[in-house]
Amino acid sequence: MPDHLTVIHWLGNLAVIAPAVLIALLGVPALLGISLSEKRINRFVEATLSLAFASAVGLLVMMWSHGVDHYNVNWGNWVSIPHYHFTIKFVLDWLSVPFLILSLFLCGTIGAFASRYMHRERGYGRFFTLYSLFATGMCLASVAATIETLFAGWELVGLSSALLLAFFHERPSPPRNGLRVWVVYRISDAALLLAAVVMHHLTGEGDFDRLMGSGPWPAGEVKIDEFHALIVGFLLIIAAAGKSALVPFSGWLPRAMEGPTPSSAVFYGALSVHLGAFLLLRLEPLLESSPILAWTVVALGLTTAVYAAIVGSAQTDIKSALSFASLSQVGLIVAEIGLGFRWIPLIHMLGHACLRTLQFVRAPTFLKDQRAWEDAAGSRLRRPATIWGRLIPGPMRAWLYRFAIERGSLDAMLNDWIVSPFVRLFRWFDRLEKRWTRFLSGKKQAETPVEIQAKKTTTERVEELL
What we know:
Layout: H1 3-31, H2 38-66, E1 70-81, E2 84-93, H3 96-117, H4 124-143, H5 147-165, H6 173-203, H7 208-212, H8 226-243, H9 261-270, H10 275-282, H11 284-288, H12 291-312, H13 318-338, H14 343-377, H15 387-391, H16 394-405, H17 410-441, H18 449-455, H19 458-465
Antiparallel strand pairs: 1-2
Helix pairs in contact: 1-2, 1-4, 2-3, 3-4, 3-9, 3-14, 4-5, 5-6, 6-8, 8-10, 9-13, 9-14, 12-13, 12-16, 13-14
């Protein structure tokens, strides 16, 4: 192997491994009951993320200077059985490396901000342990060359997002909203897992090279027929829509603002919300092979952009307003991907992630400054009238305002159609397991308060309330 390829190989490994080392540095002492000081935690975070970022930048420089457009880092088969193998493989190209640099840069920036924002907060070490889990998941998803590797990073991002959303677990609302988001993520993850199964059935492997060719991005040619591409493509679109909060999965986005501001900034303002668009951009040749898929992505992106723009204009808290503004831009990025652009959505994604991170981080001090301006002026600052406010008739404005306040009822639809059936099903499994355990043990155990309440009729519950 030439010397420059050896350097590229080790720099790629180091950029992915360093955040994983941070998990061990913070998680192992916590499991052993050792409490690390805030200063030591900050040093670990700064050292590992700085090392990973420097490795990713060096990787980009080496690839640029030596004209390397595509390089695979193969960690071998971890599972190998007839008709199936699980391979951990990374791809280093002009899509993965910029997104890897963006992920590490923003994780390092938000980590420095969080070290001060979370000062003396209960669970300081727990926050950064979960944060390192998120950074590792983003790195894996950025450079994944197989759908199994992508799924591993995808799961780490989803798990850390839900746990950090429920970070303030002593309050009733964050754990409840964390469960809502986790249920929606399950739908997204199930679609991605089904796509992996279909890919193995069609090509015998989960490698993206077998699906779209081994040429450097953005070149690629799908090697399966249009019908099978349609099936895989729709599953991946569902996975991307759930992860990026595209319509009809947009209802959970305001609930995700229950977490600390640093996690909201890096998850739903910068990185996690763009992960679905990144997946579609990685598999863009698959969209080109089927006009139905391409126009579905365009329609999905434009619908999400319009929905987020309308709903975001009526939000009263700054974090929700910024999250819907971010979602509006993600919708436009998805529409650009569906139209066949490749470099434009990548540049749009990189620039928008940096801008939205700055706005989330600036939000607390901006509110303080705004209050100071209003105190000095002696009145509240008014929003300037827009051209749409003058052109849209009054009844239509009233309907749009109600639609925006209710967020299109998407949250209620998610609760009634997805979350509630999911929770009821697992509560039924829980009751079944307890009954089976009692039967095997031969003991008649007392029923739990939840089981007693579940057996009561509606009339008995109303009488209790009265």
